[in-house]
Amino acid sequence: MSVAENLVDTAAPANSPTTALPVTTAAGIEAWHVESPVVPMIALAFTFEGGAAQDPAGKAGCAQMLARLLDEGAGDLTSDAFQERLAARAIELSFHAGPDAIGGSLKMLVKHADEGIALLALALAKPRLDPDAIERVRGQVIAGLRYQQNDPGVLASRRFFKEAFAGHPYARPSSGTVESVTTITRDDLLAMHARIIGRGRVKVAAVGAIGAEQLAEGLNRAFGSLPEAGALKAVPRTEVQDLGRRIVVDLDVPQSVIRFGMAGVPWRDPDFIPAYVLNHILGGGAFTSRLFQEVREKRGLAYSVGTSLVSHRSAAMTWGYTATKNERVGEALSVIGDEIGRLITDGPDDDELQKAKDYLTGSYALGFDTSTKIAHQLVQIAFEELGMDYIARRNALVSAVTQVDIRRAAARTFADGRMLVVAAGRPVGL
């Protein structure tokens, strides 16, 4: 039986993520560990509290640039030498930055674990941040930003966040702008590194053919020598602003790309699971959701339409997307608003609710079909402080959702049905 299949067992064996065990190193690094000897490899995922929301004023993109530079040379190894060491052992090491965290992953064969851990330790503790690497990465980022300048989806999303969270760090694009990225200096990157990449701020998950004692030793080498991180800037709580407002980003294209949003429920909130089920019914189900059926199947207004829940440390929202001909934007938004209104007034029927719960419980195991996926799921759960047993509890939480829970979630997320809408294109009558 596979690890994924074991997720729904009440008595899962030791190599199931439902039975992840804690490991603490001599330096106090805490990790969640799933030992799985099936394949001779190890997957590691880690995340440090503090991300793009910590970017200095006027320097959006700093955290993301730092993440891209961590494997561009470290210690005595130049960028080329560092990458050659990784390639020689087929070690996969990557870093990324989001609004609230800088994280990464490491995957390697067991026989190359010492080398992989050593390179990870160097990248985290002693990134070179050489001037030539900084300028190369800066050039790549700016090229990407310029390429996106006429992308309706990117422009609609950026304008949405700018208006939804005006005056807040979440309003800034995580990748920055051409102007902001141009101003980022090596000192800015060093300061960001000192603030975020620290021993007391990391969450770690490991999956693979490694025992607890060996893992503790490896994690001590990877993270134990890091200094304590500096103080983070406070990121105040916020919520989606300007509900009911409709904004046009003028672009000479035949089809408008639409982004819309309203209030949400954070992952840590007890109402998150009911809101998650509700979202699946509205727009989260790929082919079964109300929006897919009403907007695409019945009226042919759009090729794709959907919604998802966004949960940041200091904000949550229900976020939606679609695209349609300029002359049909008003109709598409009217249909979306009507379906939200129906859920506010009537809710789903019992059969619709049960089908949503059946799908969400039955498909959950598909997110755990590789060691890397399991490690990333575990570290995200650890980051959200949901508890090591969350995976084992999650399906029962979904199954327990009632019509009362759905109505409560609808009142919190949909409220009176007003949305902030941004359309990039030349929508008629918006």
From TrEMBL:
Listed Gene3D superfamilies: Metalloenzyme, LuxS/M16 peptidase-like (3.30.830.10)
> Which keywords does this Swiss-Prot/TrEMBL entry list?
Hydrolase, Protease
Its taxonomic path starts at:
Bacteria, Pseudomonadati, Pseudomonadota, Alphaproteobacteria, Hyphomicrobiales
Give the GO molecular function terms.
metal ion binding; peptidase activity
Biological process annotations from GO: proteolysis
All copies of the Peptidase M16 C-terminal domain together span 183-359
Superkingdom of this entry's organism? Bacteria
The family database entries (Pfam families) matched by this protein are listed as: Peptidase_M16_C (PF05193)
Record-linked InterPro entries? Metalloenz_LuxS/M16, MPP/UQCRC_Complex, Peptidase_M16_C
Q: What is this protein called?
A: Zinc protease
